[in-house]
């Protein structure tokens, strides 16, 4: 069995993944904009320059996934998928460093998408180059899947899954490169949202007692919802975290001198395999009914799901790929294999749903994603490139 770390160290260029990440950050790729096409072209050219076959998978006009493959020369074997998304959230305001500058300051690469997730894309691109170099010693294949539209409607990953079903190809393991701080996440909580519409009774504010204030009712309900989060901590999953409720938007009323007849608010909800969406909905209904009882008011309300449910995702800690990833992390100086829940949701659930065990692992911390002055540690990018490469060498090298 080859000593993969020694072989990798003899070829690994510390600066190339960093330069790749800088160049990716300099390409604006806000979800739904023209930049998604430009960044895909840049990445495709990199693969072509290194003789790595790449497929341009059209999703819609000016939006395409990229699917690259590196085949081992020794024949049939496992298939490892490295997955990431090329789009970002809008640039926003409040930046100290140019959001498309790709500047490195004090070991941090700044820019929109640096953390979420162009650092991981760069590390995966460079991994493909490394695996192509060692292909004569490998079985099976490394597949790279970079998708569009992750930040909005997930049309990119859905398009790839359609093709995956059609072609009947098998992927044995996947790693989704979301920012986990180089900790191993076995999955993520599910996410959805509910809209609650409260109907009261309008009247002049001078005789407010004659009306039913929908804003007051909504505020009482929101306080009841807030109380539930302490209770939900008891349902905590050690690998995924706790189910949760968070009111993120509220609208109501017409004027200060009119008792508001209507108030609407929206609730972000996080689910677990053992705490499904139905339980969360029942909590919302219970909170509303409690206010009805305590206030003695028969007000009308409408509870609707406003965002489709992206289900939770989890894989077993006993999977072989988990051990191989842990060993690969341990071989990078300064890194210790650590398991940690991924607090956000991601497209791992789409992969798990079609039978592909998907771990979440990547450079950067989720706390920095989507923020002004978003950054990723340069050290993290290099470490991720080493770890992805070592993992692929182990999976395809017969370990």
Give the key terms.
alpha+beta; 4-stranded antiparallel β-sheet; 399 residues; Aminopeptidase; 17 strands; 10 helices
What this model shows, in words?
It is a single chain. This protein has 2 domains: 4-187 and 312-396, Zn peptidases (Aminopeptidase), CATH 3.40.630.10; 190-310, Alpha-Beta Plaits (2-Layer Sandwich). It has a 6-stranded mixed β-sheet with strand order 1-2-6-3-7-16, sandwiched between helices. The model has no long low-confidence stretch (mean pLDDT 95). The protein has 10 helices and 17 strands. With 399 residues, the chain is an alpha+beta fold.
Task: Lay out the secondary structure.
Layout: H1 4-11, H2 15-25, H3 35-49, E1 54-60, E2 63-71, E3 79-85, E4 104-105, E5 108-110, H4 114-133, E6 141-147, H5 155-167, E7 173-176, E8 187-188, E9 190-199, E10 203-204, H6 214-232, E11 244-252, E12 258-259, E13 262-271, H7 277-295, E14 300-310, E15 313-314, H8 320-330, H9 348-353, E16 358-360, E17 375-377, H10 378-396
Parallel strand pairs: 3-6, 3-7, 7-16
Antiparallel strand pairs: 1-2, 2-6, 4-5, 5-17, 8-15, 9-13, 9-14, 10-12, 11-13
Helix pairs in contact: 2-4, 2-10, 4-10, 6-7, 8-10
